[in-house]
Amino acid sequence: MLLYRYLLSFLYFSYVYSVADLDEDMCETLPSEIHLTKEEYDELGRLQRTCNGEVAVNKCEGSCKSQVQPSVITPTGFLKECYCCRESFLRERIITLNHCYDPDGVRLTNEGSNSMDVKLREPTDCKCYKCGDFSR
User: Could you list the residue ranges that cross the membrane (predicted)?
Assistant: First the structure.
């Protein structure tokens, strides 16, 4: 048992020193493009039109420093500290979709029905947060 603890301690310290050489956080706000489709229904639930388009938006991407270490206090025997790359601030944008079609797939050309405005929230800044922490 004593040998097991020494081995576990050695592995932990080896891991900590190797992780210390890595950069702290690599969480970034990056530009990306998505294909967005939005459908519009009447009050009876019938499809009126479908609009779509390619939209440039920001996304959060990257990694954050997390660790697992042996612990005599926790029931599992390990203390886990997990951090995730998430948005720290969102901005609201109005996107105009210019490719609209009726339920039969015919492209709409009439003024007022040939485009649709969609409200979108996207990240303007991203950073590392403790995983599962939704209190911010």
Answer: none
Residue owning tokens 């105009």: 96
Kindly state the tokens that stand for 44. 């009876």
pLDDT digits 0-9 by tens, 13-38:
444 444 444 446 899 999 999 999 99
2-130 homologous superfamily: Cystine-knot cytokines (2.10.90.10)
Both structure tokens of 119: 């409200």
How far is Cα 80 from Cα 74, in angstroms, rounded to an integer?
10
Supply the pTM of this predicted model: 0.63
What is the SS3 assignment for 15? helix
- List, for residues 96-122, the tens digit of each pLDDT value: 999 999 999 999 999 989 999 999 999
